[in-house]
């Protein structure tokens, strides 16, 4: 694998390489810009990153894609490494990745608790993207520097061109990439044969990758590639390839989850909102209130008609788990800033917003009946014990109506305090 030398300015330095081109089919390979990721796939992918957008949402596709870009940056800890989302990344400025440092381990960053699973427990979007990135590294370990991510008639070719270390434990892999598509005249296999010379075939491996997954990966590479300076032309890029790079990706921090789940404007369509629900005065709309009513009505009724109770929650035995994202740093692993005796209050990612809580009753230990309480993102995982307020606890138990779990609207009132409306839950249990 190539190490970077300081770039010597070349004749075309300063000239920004043009964006992906649509080559004409008669002139050799058909290079594509796969801009069209299906809307549902973006929403699913965002969901797999813990950024939830309703399937009914009428948020415009460019806004969805913008959210996806922000999510991908958050997963790469982009601003953490480079200081600024707009920072230009020039690989020759960074030291080479040391040969004796395990690249696969450095790329395979897991935050404890693993990745969020799709509702049907199928890994989608984000988890898959992570697998694709890891497959590059695995291929490299076997001496294969080019990976063809393909399905049917479409393929994304990614070749690894060099590795540097913008931070000591953070590798950055420079790649050349090209998206191609077979046609009636030239099928994908022939096209790939034409694109990859005979003498390089032995360093190529293939990974089955759906077209949507290819497109998602392409967008990540493109998003990163746009941050390379125009003067940077990696050696071995080859004709038709764009330069881009990959960084390790991992689950979003809870701060980012909170930030990226904030709806801007109307909760349905994202238009700058012009009104609030007149009944509860809580939810923002433009003209979409009617469509959102089905989803909103329980919260609305809870706020405007029903009693709310103050509940003080407690850290669980596994309290350290709740704050894991706050203390997990990609470079330092798990920090031990959280002392055992004084658990710090859980992060407030909801601000003043109403959010659903899941309450699970545990009567296993007769001396310690309690609810396990958490939010959709598991930004906290706390206990509700009857200690100071047996009456509230009894009301909560009664609200369960014999079921082992319930979902209820709540609002953060203090470090450990929530007001909760036990009287009413959503018509249908959300699945988390
Ligand atoms: Zn709207
Ligand atoms: Zn309302």
Automatic annotation (TrEMBL):
SUPFAM superfamilies: HIT/MYND zinc finger-like. Residues 266-300 form the MYND-type domain. InterPro entries: Znf_MYND. It comes from the Eukaryota. One of its GO terms (molecular function) is zinc ion binding. Transmembrane segments: none annotated. Keywords: Metal-binding, Zinc, Zinc-finger. Residues 1-36 are annotated as: Disordered. Pfam families: zf-MYND. This is MYND-type domain-containing protein. It comes from Macrolepiota fuliginosa MF-IS2. The lineage of its organism: Eukaryota, Fungi, Dikarya, Basidiomycota, Agaricomycotina.
């Amino acid at each position: 694998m190539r190490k970077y030398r300081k770039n010597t300015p070349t004749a075309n330095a300063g000239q920004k390489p043009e964006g992906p081109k649509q080559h004409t089919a008669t002139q050799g390979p058909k290079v594509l810009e796969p801009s069209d990721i299906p809307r549902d796939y973006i929403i699913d992918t965002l969901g797999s990153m813990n950024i939830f957008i309703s399937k009914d949402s009428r948020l415009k596709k460019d806004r969805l894609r913008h959210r996806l870009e922000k999510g991908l940056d958050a997963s790469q800890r982009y601003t953490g490494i480079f200081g600024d989302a707009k920072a230009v990344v020039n690989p020759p400025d960074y030291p080479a990745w040391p040969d004796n440092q395990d690249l696969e381990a450095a790329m395979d960053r897991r935050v404890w608790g693993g990745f969020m699973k799709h509702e049907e427990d199928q890994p989608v979007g984000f988890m898959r993207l992570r697998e694709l990135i890891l497959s590059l590294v695995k291929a490299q370990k076997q001496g294969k520097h080019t990976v063809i991510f393909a399905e049917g008639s479409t393929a994304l070719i990614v070749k690894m061109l060099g590795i540097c270390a913008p931070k000591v434990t953070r590798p950055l892999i420079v790649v050349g990439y090209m998206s191609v598509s077979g046609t009636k005249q030239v099928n994908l296999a022939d096209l790939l044969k034409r694109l990859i010379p005979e003498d390089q075939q032995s360093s190529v491996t293939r990974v089955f990758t759906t077209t949507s997954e290819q497109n998602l990966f392409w967008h990540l590479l493109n998003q990163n590639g746009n941050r390379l300076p125009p003067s940077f032309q990696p050696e071995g890029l080859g004709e038709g390839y764009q330069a881009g790079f990959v960084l390790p990706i991992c689950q979003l921090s809870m701060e980012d989850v909170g930030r990226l789940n904030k709806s801007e404007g109307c909760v349905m369509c994202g238009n700058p909102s012009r009104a609030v629900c007149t009944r509860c005065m809580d939810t923002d709309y433009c003209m979409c209130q009617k469509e959102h009513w089905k989803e909103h009505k329980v919260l609305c009724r809870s706020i405007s008609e029903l009693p709310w109770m103050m509940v003080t929650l407690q850290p669980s035995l596994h309290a350290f788990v709740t704050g894991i994202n706050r203390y997990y740093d990609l470079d330092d692993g798990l920090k031990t800033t959280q002392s055992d005796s004084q658990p710090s209050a859980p992060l407030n990612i909801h601000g003043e917003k109403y959010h659903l809580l899941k309450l699970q009753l545990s009567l296993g230990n007769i001396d310690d009946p309690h609810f396990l309480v958490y939010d959709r993102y598991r930004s906290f995982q706390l206990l509700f014990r009857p200690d100071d307020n047996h009456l509230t606890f009894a009301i909560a138990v009664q609200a369960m109506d014999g079921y082992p779990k319930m979902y209820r609207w709540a609002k953060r009132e203090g470090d450990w305090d929530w007001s909760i409306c036990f009287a009413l839950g959503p018509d249908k249990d959300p699945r988390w």
